[in-house]
Amino acid sequence: MGRIHKRFNVLPKDFVKMGEKKALEFLMDMVIQLEAEKKSRSYIPNNVKPIKNWLSFNGININQRIEIARRNELVTVADERVPTLEELARIFLPQDCLEQKPRQHW
Fold first, then answer.
1. What is the pLDDT of residue 56?
2. How far is CA 43 from CA 39, 50, 95, in A?
3. pLDDT for 8-59, tens place per residue?
4. N or C: fewer beta carbons within 10 Å in the chain?
């Protein structure tokens, strides 16, 4: 609810004052806006659910299903790859270890 308040400037008590029809319109508008911003398929329902739960807790039930595009879309890993040894060294080894001279064995 905090994320929603910061982003849309709506307090939880404002949802209750809206009533069922206006709250549903707000949810639909919010979903459309978040979809336009290409938010992930889990981000949008994670914003809708707390509002619906809050409204239900306050006696306002929204039974209409809110369609969310790409909800069941699989996450692809096509752009992922195995890191190279140099990339792993940069991540896991401190810079000063990389600059050390090789040790001489006696």
1. 92
2. 6, 12, 37
3. 888 888 888 988 899 999 999 999 998 888 887 778 888 899 999 999 999 9
4. C
Angstrom CA distances, 24 to 16, 69, 85, stand at 11, 17, 52
Side chain identity at 55, as an amino acid letter? L
What is the Cα–Cα distance from 4 to 73, expressed in whole angstroms? 24
| Number of other CB atoms surrounding residue 24 within 10 Å | 18
| Cβ-based burial of 59 (10 A; exposed 0-12, middle 13-18, buried ≥19) | exposed
